[in-house]
Write a structure and sequence with these properties.
The protein is α+β, with helices and mostly antiparallel strands. The protein has two domains: 101 residues, Immunoglobulin-like (Sandwich), CATH 2.60.40; 57 residues, no CATH class. The chain has a four-stranded antiparallel beta sheet, with no helix packed on it. Strands 3-4-5 form a three-stranded antiparallel beta sheet, with no helix packed on it. The longest helix is centred in the N-terminal third of the chain and has 20 residues. The protein starts with a helix and ends in a 12-residue tail after the last helix. The mean pLDDT is 88. Its main location: cytoplasm. This is CS domain-containing protein. It comes from Hohenbuehelia grisea.
């Protein structure tokens, strides 16, 4: 079903479809030989292994577009093409409590949600992802500045006042007027 068809559904039909989709997705994800979660910048995967497994017992390959995990000499637990490229040098794996492999993959595109880990596995609906709220203090300086500017501009628009960019233009015009009192600005229109 595409977006246009979905939009034509009544509220009750949408809720029923969303619930059915969530249940199907949960069943598909539960059938995978691992669990995974993601943030915009990274993906974390937990692969259960037999109790007592140590790092030297494992064959793990993390490549830009490929992931392979298994016990040496046995069939691979997972093996395939990653749905998106990763930063190999920033991706890691560890054995936790000798019963699970924790794999951390750093996304190259930090602005995209992944539909799945391996391309041949079931997909999730990324349009329904609700990221956890982050605090402004969690953001780096540049990002924080952008978010604060956007919040200010949005607040100004709601009050019918000029945005930060419009304020800068008006300030520049006032400085120009002050520097050139001989000019007549009575008929000037600012756009």
């Amino acid at each position: 079903m595409d977006d246009a068809e979905y939009d034509k559904l009544s509220k009750e039909e949408r809720e029923a479809k969303d619930k059915a989709d969530r249940e199907r997705e949960a069943a598909e994800q539960a059938a995978l030989p691992y669990t995974w979660s993601q943030e915009l910048g990274d993906v974390d995967i937990v692969v259960p292994v037999p109790k007592g497994t140590r790092a030297r017992d494992l064959a793990v390959v993390i490549a830009k577009k490929k992931l392979s995990v298994g016990l040496k000499g046995q069939e691979k637990i997972l093996d395939g093409e990653l749905c998106k490229d990763i930063k190999v040098e920033d991706s890691t794996w560890t054995v936790e409590d000798n019963e699970a492999i924790h794999i951390h993959l750093e996304k190259i595109n930090r602005e995209t949600w992944w539909e799945n880990v391996l391309t041949h596995h079931a997909k999730i609906n990324t349009r329904k992802i609700e990221p956890p709220n982050s605090k402004l203090s969690d953001l780096d300086g540049e990002t924080r500045g952008m978010v604060e500017k956007m919040m200010f501009d949005n607040q100004q628009k709601q009050m019918g006042k000029p945005t930060s960019d419009e304020l800068k233009k008006l300030e520049a015009l006032e400085k120009f007027k002050a520097a050139h009192p001989e000019l007549d600005f009575s008929q000037a229109k600012v756009t």
